Amino acid sequence: MAQRFWSRLGLGAAKATMRRVGTGALLGTGAAATSYLCASRRGPLHLESSAGLEERVRLLETKLRSLELSDQEEMRAVATLKMAAAQHGLDIAGGTIRRTSSRFCLGVEHGDYNGTELFGVGTDRFIWMAFKPNDSGKIRVYSQNFPDEGVVEFTPGKVPPPKSAEISETWARFPYGVEHVLRQNGIETGRGFDAVLVGNIPGGGMSRSASLVINLMLTMLEVNNKSLPEGDFRVVTMAQQVENDYIGTPCGNLDQIMIYYAKTGMGTRYDPKTKQVSYVPLGVDTNEFRIAALDTGTVRHGLEKTTYAVRVKECCEFVALLQKKGYKIQSLGDVKDRATYEKIVAECGSSHPDHCLRLEYLFFAQERFEAMVKAWEAGNIDEVGATFRRDGIGLRDEYQISGPELETMVNIARTVPGVIGERMLGGGDKARLNQDSA
Asked: For residue 395, which of 327, 314, 311, 326 has the smallest C-alpha distance?
């Protein structure tokens, strides 16, 4: 049965939520999640003046803080961390809790490894980790989401080799990978710590692995007194290295960016050419629209074992072919004018039809991206939903990364009054946009 949940928008920067522990005491075709935005149609959501914008953001931050303080799930997570630590002999009393969010990508899906701009939001589905340095020289970590694996214990500097069979079927590849990558980047990780974690992020479409990696990385940096300046892009780069170089997942950096730079009340826009992050205001009345997710319940095996890797390979192959033909591009996202696009299709449509389909999606997705961001800024949620829907059709028919479970779920969603758009999220997931009442 599909699992449904609501998400508040623009929450959950990796570094934003930390607290002390009281001393009294988670990837291709058929992937798992589909999400949708719910919105009312009550006119513009933004104010024109900078003073108005500042006031709007202030009100939204106040509102979200009050929601978080009364969040029963937050309190349950903290209680779970304390209970698990006591059961497994881990000392977190007086330590710190770090919370990292998940993300919804609103465009361009699969754009990170294709050189396009990116836009997304953090959500209120999190990974919580309580941690405290120890004097054992050992890193000891327990995940309540993988209880059968018990406590993962290892000595800094002594982890299994990258991409080895030993790590392929265990969640421990994430703390191993973070420690390995930090050392590869010249960062000393010799101090041990105890940690317990729990999360409520679904297994597909919302970047559970990226959230976990960023949480672990910021924690290991802090424990070893090596914390980087806030917003340092090296965190994103190293988090991607964990996935690419240690685990073997051929992902881009979309997930890491959207989680690490998430800002309350804002959408995050990233330009890969300049590596600049900017923010797009979302509006005060967040109760009037929602991004929600439906989980198809299908099994996820990780991006490294799915169609995602095939699409990465196809796009890289096509770029190399076009470069040999004299096109001055570094990625398929560089094809932005219609004359160039039509010339490539005319030359390669017969010999490389699948590759041209991937390009077709990316070319028109970039046009939709600009239209969607402008509609978002203007508060035109109907247009955002329509753009969202058109993009979902492109991902299904041109990028071809959907599946029967997802398509069935989306077809049903379209029949619900108030649904104004639906689109897959993640490596092979589906999403939808709709009114709060839906």
From this structure: 311
